[in-house]
């Protein structure tokens, strides 16, 4: 009976639109919210993983319907989806017992894959989104990964920090382009943000190594060592050092290339009579600081 009732929710929504509410978008939103609540309750009471993951379709429908209700373009589909994931993850911090709900567990687990997929979709549709909405979307991604960095398990701290750093850097750089309409200022902002990350890596080296020692990263092998295994502990420290060095060198290389690119853009603009000497000086300083830090 429960399965039949849940399966009839879309049919009830269609009847609701045809007989009661002629606004299709609002009827879609109300039906999605009702279906999400019904599936979440059923998943909790039945303790069924199948129902839990089927409920995610209604939750995704709720996010899409919210974006359609705002009538502000495809970017709000993405933003509403990520905001919903952020809010539920944040609620799990305040009420950790909620994660015992099998529905919320399925939600949190699935969105660790859906959010990167949303980011990839946003990049592919970037020309249609515009700089302002795209910046807001990436800052929303940064908020999501910030919550996971705070709330997530210890072995995923490093992975979530990568997501936070990447999304924040992209978001603020795109926001700079939106405000200045200058590629040189945008590249310089990216160089400054990368330089700030490099500085934080230098300052927080010990904490980074602790997180990297137990990190569960794709493509890396992490074996659990019994207590007192000196050789295993040494291997974990060596692995953590390699991850730290690769991260630091990668950040410094990106900073060097973005600073150099900003200076090159200035050179091209100056030939056209529109270069900004202050931005060129800052770009050159960013490049020199990168070289000094690398040395």
Question: Structural class of the secondary elements?
Answer: mainly alpha
Low-pLDDT windows of residues: none
Approximate helicity band: over 70%
The first-to-last residue Cα distance is 70 Å
Shape, principal axes of CA atoms: flat
Order of helices and strands: HHHHHHHHHHHHH
* Mean pLDDT across all amino acids: 75
The biggest beta sheet reads: none
Q: Strand-residue fraction?
A: under 5%
User: DSSP helix count?
Assistant: 13
Radius of gyration, taken over Cα atoms and rounded to an integer in Å: 24 Å
| Beta strand count | 0
Task: Describe this protein with a few key phrases.
mainly alpha, 295 residues, 83% helix
Can you tell me about this structure?
The protein has 13 helices and no strands. The protein has 295 residues and is mainly α. 83% of the residues lie in helices and 0% in strands. It is flat and about 70 Å long.
List the topology elements:
Layout: H1 2-7, H2 9-19, H3 24-46, H4 49-70, H5 75-94, H6 102-124, H7 126-129, H8 131-151, H9 157-180, H10 183-203, H11 205-213, H12 230-271, H13 277-294
Helix pairs in contact: 2-3, 3-4, 4-5, 4-6, 5-6, 5-8, 8-9, 9-10, 10-12, 10-13, 11-12, 12-13
Can I get a quick summary?
This protein has helices spanning 2-7, 9-19, 24-46, 49-70, 75-94, 102-124, 126-129, 131-151, 157-180, 183-203, 205-213, 230-271, 277-294. It is mainly alpha-helical.
